[in-house]
Every structure is written in C-alpha cells, then in structure tokens.
Amino acid sequence: EARARIWLSICMQAMGDQRAKAQMETALAMARQHNDRFLEGRAQGFVGSFLYLEGQIDAARSELEMALQHFRAVGSRSAEAWTLSNLGITCYPNDPEQGRVRVSTALKINRGLGVLSRQASDLGRLAVFLDQLGDHSGGKSAYLESVVLQRVIGNRQRLQHELSNLGAACIELGDFDEALAHLAESLAIAQQI
Q1: Distance of CA 178 to the CA centre of its chain
Q2: Separation of first and last alpha carbons in the chain
Q3: Which bin fits 155, alpha (ψ -120 to 50), beta or left (φ > 0)?
C-alpha cells in the first residue's frame, strides 16, 4: 500500500493537488511501520522534494539526507544518485561548491548505470553550479553534453530548455554567434511544443 500511495502522491503533485504531500507523508509512515528502508527512503526523498518546492530548503535537505542514508543502507545506487542530485539543488544559490560536488557524484553514478535521462539532467544541473562558480567554459561543456543526450533521448522540452541555457552560457563567454544559433533553435522548438 505504501508503494501505491507514493505513486498516487506523485501523480497528485503533478496535477497540482495540494493533498499530495499529506499522501506522501502517509506513505512514509506506512513504510516506517513495515520497516521497509527502500520505500521509506523513496517517500522521504519525495517529501523532501515537496518541501523544496514549498521553499522550505533546510527541511527539504534534512529529509533528503535521511533518504540518502536509507538508499545507501540498502545499496540502491540509482536511488542514491537521484537523491544526491536533488540534494545538489538544495544548495542553489548559497553553496554552489557543495551543489557541484553532489551533482557530480550523482552524474558519476548515473554514468556507471547508463541512465541517459538522469545523466542529461545532472549535466544541466552541474552546468548551473559551474556557471555560478565562474567556470563558464565548464558550464558550457556540461550544457553541450546535456544537449547531445537530450537529442538522443528525444525529450524536446528538456532540449529546448538546455539549448536556452547553452545560449546564455555562450553569451557569458562572448560567443555571440554560437549563442544566437542555440537560442534560435531553442525558440523554434518552443514554438513547436
């Protein structure tokens, strides 16, 4: 039942239902009652994500840290990477170096697992932190790699987003012609989707 409640909560959240977090908290309590560390970590991670969306960054980070402990205890590398990447987001904008470390670790795990969609997402997140740290060339490289993966995956919405970010990175580097090409493609995709 906890697993079903987790997915129900995710669906509810995607539909904008304000009861999603309460549903996830119920799933978390059920997972704890059944001593299922993986499901507890999953529910706790999503509670952390919901808290982040509500602007409760410290509470989100706390929930995600606990989820990370559960996933490491049960040896779920995929869930560990997902949680590390989300922990990285909680570091923006106040601790870009810690965000970079967490997202880089998630990226390394996801590369080892061969999960292209998460690699692409992690690369986009990594680029944000590299840019914030002043490494615009590194940020551009990460965005470029993310764009390549988004093309392979076929996720046009994410491709459009990453092309826009890549264009902005090119502007930071003074590569205006390249920026215009990426931004024109981003705009063309945006008008199609």
Answers
A1: 27
A2: 36
A3: beta
By C-alpha distance, which of 114, 190, 185, 184 is closest to 152?
Answer: 114
The pair phi, psi for residue 82, each rounded to 5°, is -55, -45
Length in residues, the chain: 193
pLDDT per position as a tens digit, 16-45: 999 999 999 999 999 999 999 999 999 999
Amino acid at the residue 97: E
Residue 12: count of CB within 10 angstroms of its CB: 18
Please state whether the peptide bond connecting residue 93 to the residue before it is cis, i.e. omega within 30 degrees of 0.
Answer: yes
The pTM assigned to this predicted structure is 0.91
- Tell me how far the alpha carbon of residue 36 is from its chain's centroid: 24
